[in-house]
């Protein structure tokens, strides 16, 4: 039977509806009661807002819904609470297009759901959550119906690349502006998780830490890190890029002098972001 996408959207809302249970943080720009299932390897985010260790979120997540969805979808991940002591702004962490739903559900980590997959590369590669020591940040993923012929509006193209030496182009992001410019409407589902850095000191050292799956990550004192390698958790390859521009308590340590200089300027200006 051919499903009507509008009827299916209604089915999604009624099937996934959890009265009074918002699937986004209370201060987030958008709200929906439809949960987006978020899985990191063997970890399923439950409940929404679950506190996860940094190591658990080193690779892009698998996303899914509890109802089959016809058509194509777009996922966006942001940190809405990054910034400095005097300025708070959004950071773009992930933008993944071309997501489709399977005809049959799968069961992973004891959860039955419809995992969303894509053959497309991320428009904005995954920026690994890594808040500064002591901070707990909420990272929010939203799912949108992807318009026919979708293209990122020109004003937002600068946010997409993940420069290996300086990913600061990812902020200050404006999800509300992107949604309006691209005509995305309202999110169909959403999910979020928290990450807290329990490290006692903000001092960092240069280098890469190898993680499972052949991926490596580097964290900067600005509160972000990026992973190097690929994730096949959804059955599709999801590219991610690494960053090695670091600022330690004793100054700038970097294998890229240009990235080091850029971070030094930001640190002096007092605007190094917490992501």
Automatic annotation (TrEMBL):
Residues 204-234 are annotated as: Disordered. Residues 1-22 form the signal peptide. The keyword Signal applies. Keywords: Signal. The keyword Signal applies. It comes from the Eukaryota. InterPro entries: PEBP-like_sf (IPR036610), PEBP_euk (IPR035810). This is PEBP-like protein.
